[in-house]
Description:
Elements: E1 11-14, H1 18-31, E2 38-42, E3 50-55, E4 58-65, H2 68-74, E5 80-83, H3 90-100, E6 105-108, H4 115-127, E7 131-133, E8 139-142, E9 146-147, H5 155-160, E10 169-173, H6 176-189, E11 193-198, H7 209-218, E12 224-230, H8 235-244, E13 252-257, H9 284-293, H10 305-318, E14 347-348, E15 355-356, E16 359-360, H11 362-365, H12 373-382, H13 388-400, H14 409-419, H15 424-432, H16 443-455, H17 460-470, H18 489-501, H19 506-521, H20 529-543, H21 548-556, H22 559-582
Parallel strand pairs: 1-2, 1-5, 2-4, 5-6, 6-7, 10-11, 10-12, 12-13
Antiparallel strand pairs: 3-4, 8-9, 8-11, 14-15, 15-16
Helix pairs in contact: 3-4, 6-10, 7-8, 12-13, 13-18, 13-22, 14-15, 14-22, 15-22, 16-20, 17-19, 18-20, 19-20
Bound molecules: acetyl coenzyme *A and (2S)-2-hydroxybutanedioic acid.
Amino acid sequence: MSRLFTKDTQAIFWNNNKTAIQRMLDYDYTIGRETPSVAAIVAPTSNSKFEKFFYGSDEIMVPLYKSTTEAKAAQPQADVLLNFASFRTAYDVTMEALKIGGFKTIMITAEGIPERLARIMNQAARDAGVTVIGPATVGAIAPGAFKIANIGGTIDNIINSKLHRAGSCGLVTRSGGLFNELSNIISINADGIAEGVAIGGDRFVGSVFIDNLLRMESNPDVKYMVLLGEVGGTEEYKVIEAVKDGRIKKPIIAWCIGTIAKHFSSGVQFGHAGASANAERETAEAKNKAMAEAGIHVPASFNDLPGTIKEVYEELRANGTIGEIPEPELKPIPKTRRSKQFICTISDDRGEEATYAGFPISSVATPDTGKGIGDVVSLLWFKKQYPKWATEFIETVMKTVADHGPAVSGAHNAKVTARAGKSVVEALVTGLLTIGPRFGGAIDGAAKYFKYADDNNLTPAEFLAYMKKQGIPIPGIGHRIKSLKNPDKRVEGLKKFAAEHFPRTPLLDYALTVEQLTTSKKENLILNVDGTIGILMVDMWRALGYSEEEIDEFIESGTLNAFFIVGRSIGFIGHILDEKRLAMPMYRHPMDDILYDVQKAEEI
Ligand code: ACO
Ligand code: LMR
């Protein structure tokens, strides 16, 4: 891995840290990335499915997941984990990600992870070949490709520091603040940086100076390196070794800050946990001296660092190692942006012609298109183009349930309302309002419970016992007038369709074994039309490749009853128009059809 990040790198962001994520997306937009650098957010306590962010003046939806496992499964291409968990959870989040696998880089922002845990975590990552940036860091950047969260600061600062496109320097610091300072110095005295990492200020960080410098040595974009060390630790000596034994050949400019420490009594610790010298060779002075002796460019003081950078850079320009860097065109972030109130993912009326899930209406509406109402449903309800057998099944269902005579609950209600002088829509709504767990609306329930029983390998007897315990009649079983002796032809029709066109019908096969048991108790306890539809829809979705979670979601959101709602609306409207055509007077129920049992109310 010679480059830490590329323009295709995508990350999973652990924690819904909106400001930091927005900064990343603003950067992406400015530099003209094709895909947003954040592919997913892990937000364990959120019930939302996505978070909206600006991408230029537009908004995009970044999916939210409850766990890293889910996020990684849904976005396998995202190979960077930005671990923004607190110091209490950062260890667990990192260890879990290492277990899941598929991450090349993990950045840990938390400061103060217990040192014992940090060491275990860093070693586990090293063993797995994963680069850890941090803990206690603002991250890293590959200018013009990928930027972690807040590194580099605001967009204006980024452009001023030439962090919007790749330069020639590889920069490694401990501190994030000094990283920004250094990138600014490099932009003024040279042509910016190709890759930069703030490795973090804790005593035990994952990737150390040498890891990053060795990678930069093999990164062809990096022509020279700047290392900003700190008092404390001996990591700089590993760099000296690599320079001496030839593993690093590119020029290095280095400075170890903290030379002031010698003016204090021993053991003084600077801002970072790791910034404290425990031995003479850990002092900034000793390290600067050793680095200079090894041929590393060490300035006389921090104030001379810009001059040294300029000198090395100009020498590399002069000998042709570094060429001219073209300035890319940047896309400015609009000054004012307005968040959208509504989201629509199914249709669009902004163009010349409105579309259903990307298909112009004219491409599905007329008979010559070969598309039917089943295709329209598959586009607008499921945002997919279902195969013919599935769209024909949807149409078969809707046609099958369009009406069942005037006596059924809903039609009766619609007729009574129409006769009370109400409009088509009012009468239709009263009919629709009867659709529920007993009438026409048992489809979702049937799918839910039969699927549950089948998923849990319940025998029909166990399933019946389970439902009895729940205290609800089995949705999809039973009919007022249909029975074994008076079979429901609609059910037979749907079963025949499935036998001829479905690849498999495992849930229907199971439901029929349940029906055998229920009808042995009472012959009207057949698998009814609602049950058959719900169960076959699950078989259809499974055959179409939907996951169990997706199917459960369809069931939970009431998708299945919707087939009955649309189908039966045709019949209800028929009955309402019938009433209007016949100019029927207001209906009053015959009193002799009502059992009056009214007692005088007792005084309390
Ligand atoms: N599961 C278990 N037992 C049932 C079921 C059922 N789905 N349905 C009826 N029973 C039992 C009753 O508890 C009753 O038991 P009991 O005699 O021991 O007291 C017995 O069977 C007789 O019930 P009935 O009163 O004859 O059934 P009824 O005709 O009143 O009910 C109904 C018909 C409402 C459809 C009922 O079977 C039911 O609630 N089914 C589940 C809901 C359903 O699937 N509805 C959609 C029907 S199709 C459509 O509307 C398009
Ligand atoms: C229907 O489709 O409306 C019927 O199955 C219900 C009924 O009561 O006949």
